Amino acid sequence: xxxxxxxxxxxxxxxxxxxxxxxxxxxxxxxxxxxxxxxxxxxxxxxxxxxxxxxxxxxxxxxxxxxxxxxxxxxxxxxxxxxxxxxxxxxxxxxxxxxxxxxxxxxxxxxxxxxxxxxxxxxxxxxxxxxxxxxxxxxxxxxxxxxxxxxxxxxxxxxxxxxxxxxxxxxxxxxxxxxxxxxxxxxxxxxxxxxxxxxxxxxxxxxxxxxxxxxxxxxxxxxxxxxxxxxxxxxxxxxxxxxxxxxxxxxxxxxxxxxxxxxxxxxxxxxxxxxxxxxxxxxxxxxxx
Length: 289
Prior knowledge:
- The structure is a single chain.
- By secondary structure, the chain is α/β, with parallel strands linked by helices.
- The chain has a single domain, classed as TIM Barrel (Alpha-Beta Barrel), CATH 3.20.20.
- 41% of the residues lie in helices and 21% in strands.
- The chain has helices at residues 23-32, 54-67, 85-93, 95-104, 122-143, 163-172, 184-188, 194-200, 217-223, 243-253, 273-285, and strands spanning 2-6, 9-19, 36-41, 70-76, 109-112, 146-150, 178-182, 205-210, 212-215, 231-234, 258-261.
- The strands form two sheets. It has an eight-stranded parallel barrel with strand order 2-3-4-5-6-7-8-11, surrounded by five helices. A two-stranded antiparallel sheet has the order 9-10.
- The longest helix has 22 residues, at 122-143.
């Protein structure tokens, strides 16, 4: 855990990365200096979130404790808008199981995507979101927990991809139990001002995905935004995100949540994955005392 100053007050920030259930990876996290992980559910131990029970929850907790790290958040990625109606209902129902897992692992934050039907008008997507996340809001309020929506567009399947949609989502479901897992990388390739978005939604940032995006102007000027190959995700510090502005903003809004590397850098993949995580952590920690 790293401490940094917010108007003279020490603020604690913990660093982690997105992870499936993997005891070897948990041990690496501790050795590399991470505080914890954002634990996926479903995962390799529990392929279906509805299958979470006391026994496998205890096993996940024991594995994290044995490695000397903790779950900073639990990421529930079942699809609430699955074309298969039974699977969609199961995804909604399994959110309670994800909450049980999070509480058992010592975190009050569950993260997710705000899945909605793709290829339909925004008004229909917002109606779907309001129904599903209105239900979630009550569940999280009742247990004093928070649900943080990651802002990856997912080709139009996640309604929570921009400040314009966030405004409408938070108007439709005003509960403060619902917020953001703020990820600057997805704003960069949409040419959205990251720092302004951070300030505008300061009271809704409950977790932070640390991921970078590198844009290739020489490719973009030939392909246009509808083309391919003009941007790619990078580890923190290797793209176009202004991390000085990010940490300035986080300091000013008093953010004391978790910063989680979402490692999708195609350069540091395979045998170089751990190298990428180490480099990303080193860069992020260079901004704190």
